[in-house]
Amino acid sequence: MTYVVTENCIRCKYTDCVDVCPVDCFREGPNFLVIDPDECIDCTLCVAECPAEAIYAEDDVPEEQLKFIELNAELAKTFKAITEKKDAPSDADEWLNVKGKLKYLER
User: Fold this and answer.
1) Calpha distance 52→26 (Å, rounded)
2) Burial of residue 89, with CB atoms counted within 10 A of its CB: 0-12 exposed, 13-18 middle, 19 or more buried
3) Could you report the per-residue pLDDT of 44-101, keeping only the tens digit for each?
4) pTM of the model
5) Which of 19, 21, 86, 87 has the most crowded CB, counting CB atoms within 10 A?
6) Does 70 fall in a domain?
């Protein structure tokens, strides 16, 4: 099992989770983070650190978010590794908990 970043991260992209990852499995896109499933060691540390509550164990991903399992694996191959926390976008709090953000995902 691996952990998966879901829709609530889109346009929020808080990076608190990155600081606690012992294996640097996070990848950064323009407005979204993903977890590389080949690197994740299932330590759970990132879950509690995510202010957007966007990270789930693969087996616990809500049904309407299941597409993010495949999306994390796909984008992890093209997004660059991120190993240190960065400032969130200035409008991140405005996007927190907005539904239907998949259409805003930038690859």
Assistant:
1) 16
2) middle
3) 999 999 999 999 999 999 999 999 999 999 999 999 999 999 999 999 999 999 999 9
4) 0.97
5) 21
6) yes
